[in-house]
Amino acid sequence: MAKSETLVPRAGTVKAAVRLRKKAVITQQAVLYAVLGLFVILTLGPILFTLISSFKNNAQILGGFWSIPSPPQAANYEVAFAAIWRYTANTVGYAVTGSLLVVLLSAISGYTFAKKNFLGKEILFMMMLAIMMIPGVLTLIPSYVLYADLGLVNTPWVIIISSAAGGQIFGTFLCRSFMGGLSNELFDSAKIDGASEFTVFLKIVLPLTVPVLMTLFIMSSVGIYNEYIWPLLTIKSNEIQMIGVGLTQFKNQFGISDMGVEFAAYMISSIPLVLLFSFGMKYYIQGLTQGALKM
Q1: Cα angle: 258, vertex 259, 265; to 5 degrees
Q2: Is the pTM higher than 0.85?
Q3: I need a surface site. Which of 77, 97, 104, 216 has the fewest CB within 10 A?
């Protein structure tokens, strides 16, 4: 009887502890979801405000920031699209071309630094990394003078070449870190079978590094797409201007901004980046994860 009497309170104590543990876990999850929900609201709030405001005119926006547009000004999107479609097309072209060059050059240089031995390799690589510590604003005027002397100012090449050169260092670092973890036996066996260096790079290195290359492509594309200072300084013609500068030119004949059309232009200009992340997010996350594991 003594044993049974001592077991009952112990069993009850265990059940009480389990219930307390469950309550603690539920409370922690509730707090976590509340914090994440707050972050979601803070992230989506500006986007929702922009979307609502894109269907208003100036009077509706100033009369009530969060009010539902009545009536909706759908014509804002027609005006905005007619004004920025060329800027958007130019920027997408620059971003794709420049990012492809960044990916190609970074893959080649990353493979060279990761798998090849030559005199001064580490010193050269550290010098390249040191360039990343120099703020871009310090090289703005020398870069402009260089491109002006080359006759590239006010041409698409001033954006494409500068983008390819600017993303090269980080791309090389990312590719070298990832490719350095690839097994050397793969390359040795391929060379024993008679594969050339070009074949090894094309059929072994590139397929194995697709996630990292996609990550680099997305990061480079976003960086080029959001450029503002460099195109403002180097491009004067509206025919080849970028979207970042084009979005600042919504003035009517009296010098007043049409805010509804401007918000509509913001929404239209974000579509390429939304599509890019929608189709490339899987590779983007995979590339960041694998790159972190390799490093």
Answers
A1: 95
A2: no
A3: 104
